[in-house]
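Troubleshooting: if your tokenizer reports a length mismatch, compare your output against this known-good record of 210 residues.
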Amino acid sequence: MTSTDRYLARGPRVGIRHFTADDREEFTGLSRQSADLHRPWLFPPDSDAAFDGYLARLQEPLREGFLICEYNSGRIAGYLTINNIVHGAFCSGAIGYGAFAPAAGRGLMSEGLRLVLRHAFGPLGLHRLEANIQPSNKQSISLVERAGFRLEGFSPDFLFVDGAWRDHERWAITREMVRADEEHQTGQTGQADQEADPAYRDIPRGGEAE
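Known-good structure output:
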């Protein structure tokens, strides 16, 4: 899907948009292709009937669903949902997400997650998002850490996943944390511009990691 007018927001490589019935074939095919990547933590719909039920649930007022798509090609890279949305004094929701195998390890989910955070804390009017993650799911933990989430606690037997009650770590981020991170990134612009100058390129710098 290459039309740009369907994107709610976009970055250098990805855009985010809502699910549609037309995504059924691509989404379910990617789910089947990515089963080895997702198990035992994630079970996205991999059949037409499962997708239709999933899409219907995303129309409920307490949910929002987003596809993360490669901007140039429109191919689906992954997805993210906000569930259990509560407004009023709480203004919070819980997120679930997954990358598909062709996009894994390319940084597309990190970019997409940041776009969803801005959308959630902007147009959706939320203040806080939570991510509940099994401790063994290291890639998922790394994703939210990079986005600025903080670890807030540990809940034994928290969610019923793959036939059993599973322990989860509770990660969260607030609107203020995103704003502070963006201000920090803006503050680095001057330093980045300076280091782009040839006069600075050979200055040794420690503590960096790719």
